[in-house]
Amino acid sequence: MLLKELSALASPLNDQQIGQLQQAVAELSPQQLAWISGYFWGLSQTQSVGQQPAGQPVAAVAAKPAGKLTIIYASQTGNAKGVAQALKDEAVAAGIQADVFAAGDYKGKNLTKETHVVIVASTHGEGEAPDDAIELHEFLQSKRAPKLPNLNYAVLGLGDSSYEFFCQTAKDFDSYLSKLGAKPFVDRIDCDVDYDAPAAEWRAKALETIKDELQGGGDAEVVQLPVGQSAPAAVSQFNKQNPYSAELLLSQKITGRDSGKDVRHVEIDLGESGLTYQPGDALGVWYDNDPALAEALAAKVGLTGEESVEVEGATLSLKDALVSKYEITAANPQLVTKFAELSGSKKLQKLVEDKDKLREYAANTQVIDVFAEKKTQLTTEQLQGLLRRLTPRLYSIASSQEEVGEEVHLTVGLVEYQQGEESRFGGASGYLAHRLEEGANVRVFVEGNNNFKLPADDQTPVIMIGPGTGIAPFRAFIQERDNRDADGKNWLFFGDRTFTDDFLYQVEWQKYLKDGVLTRLDVAFSRDQQEKVYVQHRILENAAEVWQWLQEGAHLYVCGDANRMAKDVHEALITVAEQQGGKSREDAEQYLNDLRKAKRYQKDVY
């Protein structure tokens, strides 16, 4: 269409040349067309092209065409995707042509055609590749993987050092590519939860290393839209780096008075933000720490809180920095290890020698209680060096926008326990439950999760397993299916401690069941009888029906605790495949792995 429009204008090309050009570019992608535009412009700048005598062949290419950077992200919740997109934007700004692919959309055999590849990889569960990256991960370690002697690559890992298999997927990709003969053009780094600064530094280093080889194609990203084609719809300007200041409409306790847990139903007004979300997405919440805890933490290491410190080039008081810039609730293995060195605590030094015990201690001890292990005077620089930067908490969204409009709902379990005579609260959950008043503002953004989504076909049955606050996304799923008048069957497994005090959204589930939106509801309340009963037990009790649903094409979803529940549910599903499908243990595991690859077995675990 564009060439036809051009042919009507004054042009140095005759009709035959325009026809030849149309035929030549008919099957090219927008990126290829953009590259060719830059290539032809380069030819136009060489004197020899325009000065060739008539009838003689045009000289060969005057300069070697610029190469291309291919960026692949393996992302479970969106962090790796964000880093990959930032790298692409920076590459284009530097004059380097770059393409970005989700790992699930990239064919491993195409690596033989690449010269420079960057993989940004998150790690899922127990060192597993994210769902979208399973096939590429398996391909690179298989006998089908090609040798890659001409490939230059780099890997950036994202993870949480509190977990045993920190950045394992990134380590795997680095190892696999190296064994296939590819050469790293910059060393891999493994980023912790506060990854923004080290990731940005690594991206700059990577681009600096390859710019001389690849510069020249970056401007090709700008492609003129054909006549009559509109630009894509505008998206919200608000994101992780630029969160929206939203009004807290409601923070209501939904567990009973005798419950041992405080779970809140939270409603937030997205107003005029333009933020949209889909069931399965998460809401990122930036929070402030408790000022009283900040003062206590400073005092614990011999500081007043009034000292001046510098954070990101800004000068502020230590107390203010502890409130808004640093993680001061949850400990981590690195903090414990560093404090053991500074304090000389024999207890902590012994813990450091046992990685399993160290992780367990860090996961169950807050920062101030680590500092209480041995009285130690610290400088402000030492204290800042111990603490991670504050990062937002991600909560599974508990509503469908089709149902609630410009609101977003969350199901928040308050982290709360006693430490001696003092109460300890979670940073974000304490903020939402206690410190933030209704009507006040909270900074939020939407974090998309393409690996936890309802099936596109509304007739597909779904099985949802979500004990405790893991129920959140399934409330969104059911609201969405209800509003779409989806015909597919819906089966929910829910579990908690007691029916009376812990049946989250009980009235809603019973209404959906009565109306036929929810086809089946199986519950497990562990403390309502002498023998503990959990959701995995209900799955096994209904093994024949679960297997039948899976044979009918059902999609399977699990949300909640990763350490115990998700593992127990996975084991129950393996047993179902063994007993009902007549499979060996190995075949049952492969069956579930195949479901994951087909996006029929999705997890949102934490």
From TrEMBL:
Gene Ontology molecular-function annotations: flavin adenine dinucleotide binding; FMN binding; sulfite reductase (NADPH) activity
Cellular component GO terms held in the UniProt record: cytosol
CDD domains registered for this protein in UniProt: SiR
InterPro entries: CysJ, CysJ-like_FAD-binding, CysJ_Proteobact, FAD-bd_FR_type, Flavdoxin-like, Flavodoxin/NO_synth, Flavoprot_Pyr_Nucl_cyt_Rdtase, Flavoprotein-like_sf
Pathway: Sulfur metabolism; hydrogen sulfide biosynthesis; hydrogen sulfide from sulfite (NADPH route): step 1/1
Domain of life: Bacteria
Cofactor: FAD; FMN
Binding site for FAD: 329, 363, 393-396, 411-413, 417, 426-429, 606
Any one GO biological process: sulfate assimilation
This enzyme's EC code(s): 1.8.1.2
Flavodoxin-like domain segment(s): 69-207
Residues noted as binding FMN in the record, renumbered to the chain: 75-80, 122-125, 158-167
Residues the entry annotates as binding NADP(+): S526, R527, K532, V533, Y534, V535, Q536, D568
Pfam families: FAD_binding_1, Flavodoxin_1, NAD_binding_1
Catalytic activity, as annotated: hydrogen sulfide + 3 NADP(+) + 3 H2O = sulfite + 3 NADPH + 4 H(+)
Keyword set, alphabetical order: Amino-acid biosynthesis, Cysteine biosynthesis, Electron transport, FAD, Flavoprotein, FMN, NADP, Oxidoreductase, Transport
UniProt remark on cofactor binding: Binds 1 FAD per subunit. Binds 1 FMN per subunit.
PROSITE patterns per record: FAD_FR (PS51384), FLAVODOXIN_LIKE (PS50902)
Annotated ranges, domain FAD-binding FR-type: 241-455
Oligomeric and partner information: Alpha(8)-beta(8). The alpha component is a flavoprotein, the beta component is a hemoprotein.
Entry's family note: Belongs to the NADPH-dependent sulphite reductase flavoprotein subunit CysJ family.
Stated role: Component of the sulfite reductase complex that catalyzes the 6-electron reduction of sulfite to sulfide. This is one of several activities required for the biosynthesis of L-cysteine from sulfate. The flavoprotein component catalyzes the electron flow from NADPH -> FAD -> FMN to the hemoprotein component.
NCBIfam families named among the record's database cross-references: cysJ, PRK06214.1
Name of protein: Sulfite reductase [NADPH] flavoprotein alpha-component
Gene: cysJ
